[in-house]
Amino acid sequence: MYKERTETHCLTLFPLQSVTESFAKVIHGLNVGHLTEHVIQRSKRMILDTLGVGFLGTGTEVFHKASEYSKIYSSNTTSTIWGRPDFRLPPTYAAFVNGVAIHSMDFDDTWHPATHPSGAVLPVLMALSEALPPSPKFSGLDLLLAFNVGIEVQGRLMHFSKEANDIPKRFHPPSVVGTLGSAAAASKILGLSATKCQEALAIAVSYAGAPLANAATQTKPLHIGNAARHGMEAVFLAMLGLQGNKQSLDTQAGFGAFYANYSPKALPSLDSYTWLLDQQDVAFKGFPAHLSTHWVADAAASVRKHLVTDRAPLPIDHIDRIVLRIPDVQYVNRPFPGSEHEARHSFQYVACATLLDGGIIVPSFHKSQINRPQVRELLCKVELQHPQDNLPSFDTLYCEISVTLKKGVTFTERSDTFYGHWRRPLSQKDLQEKFRANASSVLSSDTVERFIEVVEGLENLEDCALLTTLLQGPSPPEMISKFI
């Protein structure tokens, strides 16, 4: 009896740490000394890729619409819209518009468990670094730390549910975990106390979520933009004293509302902390479409070698049947896509376009390409099969394609891992080539090369003002030279 009372009394004096509190302490307590060389190198690759797809995305219709809408907001404090030297917005809306640009073509990085981790975090840090007072300087290491805190929070939350391992069915993960990653990164860069970090996370939970019904539409890129903006807003509100449920990450009625079988656990102590990015790399896309279509393109390119010699056209009239054996992912099952966004989410279109053209590139999703008679003829020959062993997970899925000719011959090829997946990482040279191709749509070749150089040495950069100057796009050489 005495022992039981003693234990109860001790628990009252020293209550167990909540999951939400442990997240807040980690966000507040992590410092540059915790960054490993592996994490620094991987996150620099993520930053370079995200900048590139963001610049490319500024040429899209959805970016233009989001930008036009955001012009109604003004503030004494403003941040750069990437690649637009004469266009500035309040930091929250700069993060929103730049986040939309990043995901406007579904060209941004993908992690496991499934989400796009960088798009909701980097625009926040770039907007805030520009809005902060010039002293003290915000260094490259400060950026890398805050970026990785935002990425880490997303990964930790997804590891609390087995459902997160699969390609989503109900909601778009960046709209959920990305919102909290944004809040975590903003909390870090702004130097919030652990108590305020906890409040920011609680507020961010109420900002989170977007259904998958808007996948393959112009609205889907808003999920990333909103995650960036809403996380930042949650932090600003916490700084003003707004309060939320201090156990928002602990309960089924809190963050658990988004994931089945939600089983949260307190994070490791700072003394023994390890980063998820150290253990799990991201995938970088070779073309702007849903990640699962990259296995399809890889397998289709291999099959095509059996059908086409030299530069001869694909013998469409000789093809009787095309079978795709892929996981059952309904929102990427679009037999006859009618828009660029539907085509980016179509197993069938990516297979047919690859068979026809030999590969997929950025212009492959232009309406003129989607509506070609040859593509439509091929699409009519496609059927899908869903083998029981082909589970909807970016870590395990495969694609097998069989093309049967009218004379009865069948050619079959399979892709287990495409180039760019974390098991077959994109080389640094090819990652830089992707950045060059994307960023050159907005920037001069000199600025593109300077960007590569700066990000490559980001951990040694004393002042991130150089990055924000480069982000503005075309500018007089003397503006850049003062940072060199």
Q: Name the assembly state.
A: single chain
Number of strands: 6
Task: Note the main sheet.
Answer: 4 strands, mixed
As laid out across the biggest beta sheet, the strand order is 4-3-5-6
Number of helices: 20
What is the overall shape? globular
N- to C-terminal distance? 72 Å
- What is the chain-wise order of helices and strands? HHHHEEHHHHHHHHEHHHHEEEHHHH
How does the helix and strand content classify structurally? alpha+beta
Radius of gyration: 23 Å
Strand content: 5-15%
Mean pLDDT across all residues, rounded? 93
Q: What share of residues is helical?
A: 40-55%
What features would you describe in this structure?
With 484 residues, the chain is an alpha+beta fold. It has 20 helices and 6 strands. It has helices spanning 2-13, 19-29, 37-57, 61-70, 91-103, 122-131, 140-158, 173-189, 194-205, 220-239, 276-279, 293-307, 340-343, 347-357, 367-370, 373-379, 428-439, 445-456, 465-471, 477-481, and strands at 79-81, 84-89, 319-325, 382-385, 399-405, 410-415. The strands form 2 sheets. A 4-stranded mixed β-sheet has the order 4-3-5-6. Strands 1-2 form a two-stranded antiparallel sheet. The longest helix is centred in the N-terminal third of the chain and has 21 residues, at 37-57. Mean pLDDT is 93; it is low at 1-14 and 476-484.
